[in-house]
Amino acid sequence: MRHRLIPHTESTQLTRLPPMNMNAAHVAPPVVTTTGLPKKPRCVAFLRFLCTILVFVPLPFLAVHFIFTHQAMSVGPLIRAQCSPASTVPTPFRIAYTGLRRLDARLCHLVSVFDGALSTPAAYRYTLNWLTSFLVPAVIPLLEASKCDVPWAMAFPAVFGMAYQFNSAGACFPVYWILHFAFTYVNFGRRKGTRVSGGGLSQSGVESILFGFIAGYVFPTVELFRRPGSPRVIAAWQFFPVYVSLAQFAYSSVRARWGNARLDQERSGYTLAQTMLFMGFILSAASHVSTLASALYSPRDSIASTLAYLYVPQLQPTLPPNVTITMGSLHLLRWDGVFVWLPTMMAGVLSLEDTQSFWISVLLLPYATLLFGPGAAVAGLWMWREKVLEDRGRRAAADNDDILNEKPRIVL
Question: Which residues cross the membrane (predicted)?
Fold first, then answer.
């Protein structure tokens, strides 16, 4: 008599099956990526990757033109007059911040720009709204870096943060997303970590991000606006990515003593991440709405002109001798904002991998940006993205468990 094993089902009917090769290799369950997305056929994945790269590649070149070229054409001579060692122009910015000549020269440049962006009440309000809207784009690389099996190149957000602080956020964010999609596609240098159900965020990792971001970004930014005329405070603020990283490390070190480190890594941090993104949404939307509301009580401004002032940069910069450092600084911040928020929105939409979600996002994002501001629009999009990844991850994990837990029975 011959015995064969088949998966257990609720049916009581015995079905004759072809002879089973008992020496055949065990069939592995479907492979699921860390983000919870089933692996697509390689040709489909390559076409998606190619289209994504083609969309993002022009952005860094446009950012270089509209940020660095415009800076050199307009406000560059004024900044060089402030920071050149040979200059005779009296300035409070040409001081020894660190004792390193090259670093101090770069800090003088950055301090000049940010001092101009904080020097008048209108510029102060604009910069406050800009940095509030920058909350969510600044925290997204931290969330991506904390996910399990993240590529090594994406696992050091402090390096990326210092790159955009000392160069330009608008020029660096498109490059970040190109590298993110490229390394994710080729599966290059993936860091092996503990598997976390859902979207790949651990509870302890998200806790360290929240603590680090509050201690390293929020507190220094509050001090920046409390003392806007202090060159040393402005210079110290430029290093906030390092403060965030150090605060994360300190929290993680203390947190590891509280309990089982592996258990903490396996707990999903999805709920806390969504709460953090929602807080960013509230703060960004409140700043945007309050700025628009002030236009209602101004006889000179309208909502349309205020929106244009906040988010629409000029295609041509104001040239000397008509330009001031304040005008040039706000012009650069507007273009910075375009090349921070736009590629981040594009990355969020393209990573949904669902036609319905894609078109809903494309249709809703312009309205969300006008009503709540670009920072809040990015926050809402990323909350949706994380929910999609979490749901898919949990379904994939449940399917894998069902396959592994199928009980065999003997059929005669």
Answer: 46-68, 164-188, 233-251, 271-297, 358-384
